[in-house]
Design brief:
Elements: H1 3-9, H2 19-22, E1 33-34, H3 37-46, E2 53-55, E3 58-59, E4 68-70, H4 75-86, E5 91-96, E6 104-107, H5 108-113, H6 115-121, E7 124-129, E8 134-139, E9 144-148
Antiparallel strand pairs: 1-6, 2-3, 4-9, 5-6, 5-7, 7-8, 8-9
Helix pairs in contact: 4-6
């Protein structure tokens, strides 16, 4: 998929976001920012796009060995990993494997508290604690994987989030 086509597809189905994100009057929903395509791409360049791709929705962990791989298949396990690796960050970016679901930014504590709802959007997504050095990959039926973000953005192209 080319850049222009990806930009057109991006964010077409915000109704697929968790209900708390769509509730602008709720305490947690007020703290979530839904990103425009350009904003999502800029944050991807700092994180997700620095990883080599295995296919359109998976990272190649053989090229960049993971820091940790945790056998969890639910929101509680994802929350534990995010709590540990998001500590110290003010916010976390959530990139969905489906471009039609827009990227969002929220405080880490909201993401941890609402991890099960984020997990349910699945089947794959990545979280990047802002200004951090790790990316967390969550995929249904697979371990939650944490990897250090490569410092060289040219290491290999990754999927467009």
């Amino acid at each position: 998929m080319g850049e222009a086509e990806a930009a057109r597809a991006y964010g077409r189905y915000p109704e697929l976001l968790p209900e708390f994100v769509r509730d602008a009057r709720g305490e947690d929903g007020r703290q979530v920012v839904v990103l425009r395509w350009e904003e999502s791409q800029e944050l991807a360049r700092l994180s997700l796009s620095r990883f080599p791709a295995w296919n359109s929705v998976s990272l190649d962990w053989s090229a960049v060995p993971p820091v940790e791989s945790v056998e969890w298949d639910d929101g509680a396990g994802f929350a534990a990993v995010l709590r540990r690796y998001g500590a110290g960050a003010d916010a976390v970016v959530v990139f969905w494997g489906d471009l039609s679901v827009p990227t969002v930014v929220m405080p880490v504590d909201v993401a941890v508290r609402r991890a099960a709802e984020l997990w349910d959007v699945g089947p794959e997504f990545w979280t990047y604690p802002l200004d951090g050095d790790v990316l967390v990959e969550a995929r249904w039926g697979s371990p939650v994987v944490v990897g250090r973000i490569p410092s060289d953005p040219a290491q290999a192209p990754a999927p467009v989030p």
